[in-house]
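Exercise: predict the fold of this chain.
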Amino acid sequence: MLFDLVAPHTTVCLAGMCKNAGKTTALNALIRGARARGVVLALTSIGRDGEREDLVTGTCKPPIYVTGGTLFATARGLLPKCDVTGEMLDMTGIHTPLGEVAILRALSDGFVELAGPSMTDQIVALTERLKRFGAQKVLIDGALFRRSLCAPEAAEGVILSTGASYGPDMGKTVADTAFVAELLSLPVSGPWPEMAGRRVARRAGEIAALFDELPAALEGQGEALFVTGAFTDAMAASLLRRKSIPQEIAVEDGTRLLLSRENYEKLRARGVAFRVRRQNTLVAVTVNPFSAYGAPYDPAAFQQLVAEKVDVPVVNVREETQWN
């Protein structure tokens, strides 16, 4: 079910709303789907994944189980924790706290632990190397709060995982998940000004003025504000203090909007439309009604509420149910 949704995309990033959101469960489902369809799969991770106990929370995690023929890229220091027989294909020159990232091919079925690059350009370069070794699809296991590594240049598609571990209030979890899904689905802006190394552009009609900092840009005239890099809560606060603000804010892609839901909604209420230069493709949202920290959600109610708030398929991987 889940693999069919990602079939059009050769690179897919899995992002989580929180720890224990069900990201690894979704990853394992995609691995099984690839095997059933004879697709050569490659795996890597932003940060670390595949350990059986979360190193921060101490909670149990599902391990990552790969099949023979799967390619995987992981830090050299984790190789002793991988129980597959592996063929070393390449050393990447990408260094992590756990050692240089190596590319291997699994020659047997077994469990692996993954740790990979932490920068977008490294992910892009690693993905291309994996494809040269025969990968037909690359899965990038995202790290907590690192949605920036799911930028369009790094991943063609994004799966967002959410679950009861986010907090005891199901309504808040649904609302915050819908907010992140909206950021990953923003429409494309009009013509993007040539920034020429500047951080901010303000456009009036067809003319764009370039600025190094937001305060200077806010003194200018124009209906659209273009921002390279991140657009943050501090920048939102600067706008909200003003009587007159641009009616469009455009960023490189949805992962660059590092805003709280509260500030995003305040700006929307002031008439601001958010746009992006390059659009993310949110493929699906997966839901995990079980919490590692407290009471679970009602599975059907949780899935239905999320499905009512987002415009993509909502999948309960364990129960193999799909809404939308």
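Check your answer against the key: The chain is about 25% helix and 30% strand.
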